[in-house]
Write a sequence for this structure.
């Protein structure tokens, strides 16, 4: 029995916003028949060389494996914006994917990104670019959000044509607006549809 192709929703979330966005992207993926959403997170990293993370997270989605990344039909990658760049734990995971790059495991698969920041100009778009760069090196096809999604025009919070975003009024604020939820779901649905076309 052959399993359905899946969109890997891979993220790092510090205060919960990105984890919440991942759920809405999964809802969008699951609107498409013939493809499934698989939500995974990456472990934290520490400047303390003696510190290790448990094999299983205390809460939330399981940690991602390189096998799950190589087997995906498409990738939605999420991170909070840290000074206009993806968070170190996600970058650390991506830095371990050289074997997938050398063997071309991700070539011609669709990819997209999602992010959150606590200020309007907190680097959301640049963070999405920082996630886009290594995935383009992998040969993936980057999907943004087209303006047929009217929420891109009406939003006063998150939302960019480069990918879904969330504006958190504080680091503890992870409630998405209606527009942000719709854009996350639109992004999930779009990558699922594209993955089916390409597989």
């Amino acid at each position: 029995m052959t399993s359905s192709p899946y969109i890997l929703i891979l993220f790092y979330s510090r205060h919960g916003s990105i984890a919440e966005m991942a759920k809405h992207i999964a809802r969008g993926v699951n609107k498409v028949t013939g493809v499934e959403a698989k939500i995974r997170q990456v472990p934290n990293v520490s400047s303390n060389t003696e510190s290790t993370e448990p094999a299983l997270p205390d809460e939330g989605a399981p940690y991602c494996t390189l096998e799950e990344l190589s087997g995906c039909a498409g990738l939605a990658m999420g991170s909070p914006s840290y000074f206009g760049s993806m968070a170190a734990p996600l970058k650390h995971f991506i830095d371990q994917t050289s074997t997938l790059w050398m063997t071309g495991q991700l070539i011609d698969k669709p990819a997209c990104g999602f992010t959150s920041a606590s200020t309007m100009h907190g680097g959301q778009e640049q963070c999405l670019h920082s996630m886009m760069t290594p995935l383009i090196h992998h040969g993936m096809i980057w999907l943004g959000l087209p303006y047929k999604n009217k929420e891109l025009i009406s939003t006063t919070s998150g939302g960019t044509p480069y990918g879904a975003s969330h504006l958190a009024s504080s680091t503890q604020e992870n409630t998405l607006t209606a527009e942000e939820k719709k854009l996350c779901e639109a992004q999930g649905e779009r990558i699922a549809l594209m993955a089916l076309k390409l597989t």
The mean pLDDT is 90.
